[in-house]
């Protein structure tokens, strides 16, 4: 009888166990990596294959939709999302003089070198150091936009550790690819605001412009999302420094040509920031890469496209899922970071 009761309790407890295993509202922790400290969250079992999410320009870990993170975890992954340097709760760079972003953009447009306080490869080193701190030797990487560029560097720097790449709405950085519209570039440049209300309105305008023309956004919802991000952390100078890191980057075509990592490239046909040929170009230069184009997808995780995105990504990740190898000799992960 005791055995039957135990079995019944075990069976009845499975759904709640699965739910708690992929609970996304976990504490944010801080990893001290020496030069920088990165704020991160780890969702899922430590023993599951690790999937590192790398966010784009100015994005915080909260910009990975919770339902997407939960779906990735339920696929059997330990999902790790973090704030890049200069955004969110990670280290903000306080050195360097005032940045003249307009001047540097002009230099970029005429083919001159751009000065940046750090490189995308430095941000890739940050991510690899985070995985060192978490004692994870090999892992999968999913990067969006600038995060996809950082992910490309990670795969080149540590090919024996990155088990697969999933690159969303990103670019090779090659010359001659279609540029975003001047109107969108103006919105991207509006990073300074005299007060909270103006900053939130500016971010809402940008979110709307990055969305798909096939989807009618709820502006009140966008305002709410912008307010949450602002109240968590607002660092426009940091976003400018990240922008400089992108502009200072030469073409990554040679890097892509030498990659031998299983790669899925996903891009939207309505991307206003990195038009679809950016994704096509990335896939064309990675040996064996798969390319999936999503009609109507722009440059945001909009509700209408979450299912198509997951339908493109989940089967690929499942096909390449392998056990995670951990380093037992490294120190324990850092303690909880109180927000």
TrEMBL record:
Organism: Pseudomonas cavernicola
Region forming the signal peptide: 1-18
UniProt key word Cell membrane: no
Keywords from the UniProt entry: Hydrolase, Signal
UniProt-listed InterPro entries: AB_hydrolase, AB_hydrolase_1, AB_hydrolase_fold
Span of domain AB hydrolase-1: 49-299
Lineage per the UniProt record: Bacteria, Pseudomonadati, Pseudomonadota, Gammaproteobacteria, Pseudomonadales
Name under which the protein is recorded: Alpha/beta hydrolase
One Pfam family from the record: Abhydrolase_1
GO biological process: glycerolipid catabolic process
Recorded GO MF terms: triacylglycerol lipase activity
């Amino acid at each position: 009888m005791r055995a039957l009761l135990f079995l019944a309790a075990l069976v009845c407890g499975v759904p709640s166990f699965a739910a708690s295993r992929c609970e996304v509202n976990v504490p944010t922790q801080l990893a001290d990596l020496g030069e920088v400290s990165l704020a991160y969250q780890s969702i899922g079992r430590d023993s599951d294959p690790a999937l590192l999410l790398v966010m784009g320009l100015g994005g915080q870990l909260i910009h990975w939709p919770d339902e997407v993170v939960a779906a990735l975890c339920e696929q059997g992954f330990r999902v790790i999302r973090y704030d890049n340097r200069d955004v969110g709760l990670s280290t903000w760079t306080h050195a360097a003089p005032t940045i003249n972003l307009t001047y540097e953009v002009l230099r970029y447009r005429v083919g001159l070198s751009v000065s940046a306080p750090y490189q995308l490869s430095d941000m890739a080193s940050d991510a690899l150091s985070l995985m060192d701190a978490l004692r994870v030797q090999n892992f999968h990487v999913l990067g969006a936009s600038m995060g996809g560029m950082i992910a490309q560097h990670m795969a080149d720097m540590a090919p024996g550790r990155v088990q697969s790449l999933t690159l969303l709405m990103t670019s090779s950085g090659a010359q001659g690819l279609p540029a975003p519209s001047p109107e969108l570039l103006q919105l991207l440049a509006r990073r300074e605001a005299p007060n909270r209300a103006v900053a939130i309105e500016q971010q809402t305008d940008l979110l709307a412009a990055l969305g798909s023309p096939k989807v009618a956004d709820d502006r009140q919802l966008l305002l709410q999302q912008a307010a949450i991000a602002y109240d968590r952390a607002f660092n426009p100078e940091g976003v400018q420094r990240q922008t400089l890191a992108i502009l200072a980057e030469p073409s990554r075509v040679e890097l892509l040509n030498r990659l031998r990592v299983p790669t899925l490239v996903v891009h939207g046909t309505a991307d206003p920031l990195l038009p679809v040929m950016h994704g096509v170009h990335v896939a064309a230069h990675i040996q064996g890469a798969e390319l999936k184009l999503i009609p109507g997808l722009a440059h945001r995780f909009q509700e209408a496209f979450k299912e198509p995105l997951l339908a493109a990504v989940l089967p690929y990740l499942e096909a390449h899922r392998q056990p995670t190898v951990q380093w037992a000799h490294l120190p324990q992960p850092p303690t909880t970071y109180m927000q």
